[in-house]
Structures are given as structure tokens and as C-alpha cells.
Amino acid sequence: MEKEPNFPFLLQYLIEVSRKSNYEVDVIDRNLIRVSYNTKSFLAGANGDVGINPINSHFACEIANDKARTISILREEGFRVPTGEHFFVSDIYSEKGKELKDVFHYVKSVGFPVFVKPNRSSAAKLAEAVYSEEKLKEHLDKIARFGSIVLVQEVVNLPEYRIVTVDGEFQYSCKKVNPRIVGDGVKTVYELIHDFNDKLDKNVIEVDSHFVRAQLEHRKLNSNSILEEGDSLPVASIANLWAGGGITDYSETISNATKKWIKKVSRVFNLRVMGLDVFAEGSINNPGNMIILEVNHNPGHKVAPPEKVQKIIKLVCQKYFNEMIR
């Protein structure tokens, strides 16, 4: 019997839940499987564009993948979003007032720093705060090789949270923590960042990144400075787990006011499984505190306990297989 490949996190959980539920699992490769029951089946993939949520429609997922449209829709519906604009950074498409040259006019009017990210990306790829015109040019060049549209937004210095729902019903939330190094009174900033990358087994944080440079300049430090024991320094402007970020304040309860608020977001996008990334000026139990950063159709669930992940996946599969075939 051929040995099964090592599957990515979400697919592994989906396979375990499916077999416990007597669903048939066909392995296509380590990143793609088919789950079947009676006359219905669906493909599930580790790739964010495919995902493991068959109850989400293709159209809803496409809107969620388009960050500029998502922000525009949220703004029109009266939700708070970061101040910013989108621009075309390649020659594939263009729009008057939204061309590459207009990025620099816009940033000059609002001032540095600005947060810059591709319109279509996952896991915060090429998303970071930029602090100078030189670095802005460099970063726009990178994004132009990846896509045609860029979002330029204000830097929001507030705690970030992830909220997950299924059919508008709250499942869990957590607070995201930006990656940071912690001093020991012996090692330099350079050495601490090297150790940080070693633990992740990948070179995620660069000593000469825009963000690290700005943090060091603000503290009047450099890469050869020694951080005192217990002193910490943020090293990335994004709080994603893949970049070494962490989580706190995991919760499976939330206020009724926020439950109503997230149901409205879910209805607006017709997104049945939804991860909502928000900044909050205070408690997320008050929806008035929140600024919506992004809407995600394939939340990774890495922050949730295994039993909660299995419960959500089982719920989604049951909804898919038990609903009428039309």
C-alpha cells in the first residue's frame, strides 16, 4: 500500500474529520483531495484560492480575494476601514488618477509611513509599512512583478484581531501579536534576528527591512546594539503566524452586539465561512471600536484548539452534504 504524503495543516484535519464521518477521501496529491458522500463531492486544497470550505461560493471568494473591491464595498456599507487608495502599478491596466505616478502624489499628501500591499495576495505576502520614497519605489517594483494593483493605506497602530464565523455565527476570536525579538543583555539586534529566523527555519525577518530600520532609528539603536535583558523590539509590521507572530486572548465567546455586527458583514459578502481581520480601539465586544482590515474566505484555524478546528470542519462538511442538491 502506497504511503500517504504529509498533508498541510488544514487538509490533514479535513481528512481526519472526513474519515471519522464515513466520507470517502481520494488523494490527488499532497495539496489537493476530493471528499465524497453519496452523490455529492468537493475538491479541497491547501492553496488559499481553493481552500477547504465548499459552502463558500466561487463569486464570494473572488470578491474577498480582491482587497480593493472589498474595502470599497465595506466603505459603501458604512463599515470603518483604513484610510487609503488603490493604484495600478503595471501597464496591464490603468485608470486616470490611479496610475503609478499618482502613488507618489498621494503619499506626499498623506505623509510617511504608509502601509503598502498587493491587491491579491495571501499570508501578507509583500505587505509592509514603508517609511521613505526610496523604499516606496523599491517596494512598488516588487509588487508590480507580482500583480497590477497596489493598496496604499494609513499605518494603523492598534491591536489586531481575527474573528471567524460560519454562516454568520461566531466561532472564535484571538488577538494577533507582531513578531518581536527579546533582549538577553548579551546578543546584538543582528544576532537576535538571526536566532529568530533560525527558530522559524526560514529567513522571514531582514535586519535592513524598512520596518526594522525605522524601529531602530526611533529607539536610537542600530543592528549592533545590545538589547537589555527583557527589552523587546518589534521586527515586522504584520502579525501573521508564518512571520513569527503570536496570539493572545483566544476566546469562543463574544457580545451579542458584535454577533449582530459580524452577521451583517457575512451577509454583505455572502461569505458563509469567513475570517475577519480587524483593528480595535478597545474591546471587540463593542463593534464601534473596530476597523476592518481584510475579509478572508479560507481562515487557517492555526490559532484554535484541535477540537475546535475539527468541530468547524465537521460543521461545514455537514452543511455541504446535507443541503439539497439543486
Structure write-up:
- 32% of the residues lie in helices and 25% in strands.
- The strands form four sheets. A five-stranded antiparallel sheet has the order 12-9-8-13-14. Strands 4-7-5-6 form a four-stranded antiparallel sheet, covered by helices on one side. Strands 1-2-3 form a three-stranded antiparallel sheet, with helices on one face.
- The model has no long low-confidence stretch (mean pLDDT 90).
- The protein is α+β, with helices and mostly antiparallel strands and 326 residues long.
- Among the domains are: 9-56 and 303-322, no CATH class; 83-155, ATP-grasp fold, A domain (Dna Ligase, domain 1, 2-Layer Sandwich); 180-235, no CATH class.
- Strand 2 (32-37) and strand 3 (40-45) form a beta hairpin.
Keywords:
five-stranded antiparallel beta sheet; 9 helices; 326 residues; alpha+beta; 32% helix; Dna Ligase, domain 1; 14 strands; globular; four-stranded antiparallel beta sheet
Global Rg: 21 Å
Q: pLDDT average, as an integer?
A: 90
What ranges have pLDDT less than 50 throughout 5 or more consecutive residues?
none
**Total beta strands:** 14
The level 1 CATH classification of the domain at 83-155 is Alpha Beta
Order of helices and strands: HEEEHHEHEEHEEEEHHEEHEEH
The spatial strand order of the largest sheet comes to 12-9-8-13-14
